[in-house]
Amino acid sequence: MAGSRREFLSNVSLGVMTATLGSSLASELGLGIAAAGETPEALNFGRLEPLAALMQETAPDRLLSVLADRIRTGTELKELVAAGALANARTFGGEDYIGFHTLMAISPSYHMSKEMPADRRALPVLKVLYRNANRIQEHGGRKSEVLKEIDLRSSGPGTPPTAPLGDLIHARNVADAELAFAAMVRRGGAEQAFNELLPTVQEMCDVHRVVLPYRAWDLLDVVGREHAHTLLRQSVRYCLKAETWNTPSPQREPRTLVPRLLSDHRLLDRPAVGTRNAEDAWVDELCKTFLSASPTDAAAAAAAALASGYAPDAIGEAISLAANQLVLRDSGRPAREESIGKPIGSVHGDSIGVHASDTANAWRNMARVTTTRNTFATLITGAYQVALDRIQRGGDFTNWAPLPLQGHVDRVTEKDAPGLLRELEAAIRGNLQARACAVAHKYGMLGHPVRPLMDVLLRFACSEDGSLHAEKYYRTVSDEYATTRPAFRWRHIVGLARVTASEYGRPAPGYAEACRLLNVRDA
Q: CA torsion angle for 277, 281, 283, 288 (degrees, to 10)?
């Protein structure tokens, strides 16, 4: 870009840019629409606009009936998911706690729908879209939209958008950070903009800062790359807002630590990531290091492993397994943190382990789709973060034993698969976390097929509220099971069994109505 927005656009034909970008993205960036000084206009999502507007304008108690009718007349779930995600982004812009939790559940709900019987396939999607509509109405609907068109033609004071995105965010320059990111999308597409955003994401250890861009990226295959700017700019605004917070210094340490480790281990000189194979014992040992080391030492261990040429996915696997141990070792919510829907001893919702697992999964997946530099940095930050998660909110995780304890397993006498599945369901309905872990563990050790057990857990991930985390964590576990080596992958299933037993008994708003409209039985 030239030195100012006006100079930039004076050198490029708007007609050429619109033809290159497509009308939807050109409209999204505000090209040729808003004149300088005018009030920014609402985003328009082209063919998805009527459905996105419906999501924002319809009361939650009416929306499910309308959407069920749409499904019966041929509207695909993919289209509902895409419109719901765009309506969410336009309304909240990544700045509302319940709003961005709902956005992060939309893609998992769609993945869950593909695993369900045909007559129940819409349930997880309708559940999340109900939550989406409810929060949109609480937020003020169309009148309170955060994201507007961006006018690249207007000039104004402040740092020009040619400055690095991270510098603009550090300076809390909202207008120019937004302009710079819009220009990145225009210049290099979704991939380049994502890669240029990630170094700023990596600067702070915060579960939402990490998971939001990954879930937005994951949605692109559903929503369409032409809407990449809308989805990813939420992370820009989240990072801008985070600069105003009084965040504890350990969470901010990656801002200086990660660049230093990249330099010390000469990782910036490497043209490609390593491909060295890691044995099971090596991965298990690295997991134990992440689980016991200080955050700084854990980050250094990840950097050293990358410098030794180990394949990034092996390091990511060790980070994910360490996070899973925080689920299995957690003593549960203490009395001082008890709240509505999260009783003493519970481990669902924003528990240490669930947050750590979702974060590790996001780092691991982003490492697979980004540049070499970002692959190294995401895994170094991920190692730092899982070690920080272990100590930041208290607890003695290094001395607590992971579930299931041998005594719990010994008390499970059933051996056939149907009997074990009945026992698992009974343990979940009784909120018996240790029992659920033991049954799931024994089921796996006996070599029974995973799908029937996952079907039980899937039903409850759909029916229960989960304190905004049920869909996301279910998707994390199903993804980690599929990408973790056989020696360790069942640990993730056991963790999900525990969290499912913890969250049972708090039905999700809108779920019963969705069951009625689809003429299926409640779980």
A: -160
* Radius of gyration of the chain, Cα coordinates, nearest whole angstrom: 23
pLDDT tens profile 99-143 = 999 999 999 999 999 999 999 999 999 999 999 999 999 999 999
- Contact status, residue 350 vs residue 175, Cβ threshold 8 Å: no
What does the alpha-carbon distance between residue 471 and residue 521 come to, in Å, rounded to a whole number? 20
CB–CB of 351/330 below 8 Å? Answer: yes
pTM of the entire predicted model: 0.91
Whole-angstrom Cα distance, residue 379 to residue 365?
Answer: 10
- The pLDDT tens digits for 4-45 are 333 333 333 333 333 333 334 444 443 333 444 456 789 999
What tokens does 369 get? 């789709």
Q: Higher-confidence residue: 162 or 509? A: 509
Q: Where are the domains of the chain?
A: 1-247, 249-392, 406-513
Q: Which CATH architecture has domain 406-513?
A: Up-down Bundle (1.20)
Residue 452, pLDDT > 90, answer: yes
| Nearest of 279, 283, 364, 287 to residue 323 by alpha carbon | 287
Number of H helices, E strands in the chain: 26, 0
